[in-house]
Amino acid sequence: MQTADFDVHLLYQSLVEANSADGAVVTFVGRVREFNQGQQIADMFLEHYPGMTEKALHELAQQAQKQFTINRVSIVHRVGHLRLSDQIVFVGVTSAHRQDAFAACMWLMDELKSRAPFWKKESTTQGTRWVSG
Amino acid sequence: MFKVLFFGQLADMLDCRNLSMPASSAANVYDLLDILRERDPKWSKALNTEQLMMAVNHTLVTPEHPIVDGDEVAIFPPVTGG
Fold first, then answer.
1. How far apart are CA A24 and CA A102, in angstroms?
2. Cβ separation of B74 and A49 shorter than 8 Å?
3. A38: confidence class by pLDDT, cuts 50, 70, 90
4. Overall number of domains in chain B
5. Which residues in chain A touch residue B60, judged by CB atoms under 8 angstroms apart?
6. Does B59 contact chain A (CB < 8 Å)?
7. Are B81 and A112 inside 8 Å of each other by CB?
8. Which one of A58, A82, B26, B82 has the minimum C-beta count within 10 Å?
9. Looking at the domain A8-126, which fold is it?
């Protein structure tokens, strides 16, 4: 959890450093996109629930490691004010084979979007609005 | 006593982000929502929806989850991270 931007290359490095067992690395980056629900987005504010957010992401990583044949998991999520095209979230998974890495990465993002306590408030050309879940 | 926290659009609608309540006031989250809805029409309207999520001590729960002294209860709209 952080307000600052993240460096995808550094996060990738930490997934593969001293890791010769895993032949697959799948990473996902979510960004602030220009249009949402038909309106032009200027910027957004990401609220979260301090304490629960960290716990929820930690539990998701642990569950993914139980459910899939994967090794390392890295999740970074930004909060606070974000602008158009900014990076919001990073999920990285390593595995011996690509199928498990792809499946785990997709599962983590789906679960994060339905269970981790974040709320987006978008500023559009027609004012601010909370994004409905 | 236990704490109640609100987030996102719900906190804006209620114009309230947290409050404290006596431990004896609600046995579970379902009871708590009923009590909060009775505060006034604004609270009744904002909390009268199926579209609420709730957590006790940082874990997502269903409305039947009991509340005990010292708990931190959070009520919020569906999450929108990622």
1. 9
2. yes
3. confident
4. 1
5. 115
6. yes
7. yes
8. A58
9. Aldehyde Oxidoreductase; domain 3 (3.90.1170)
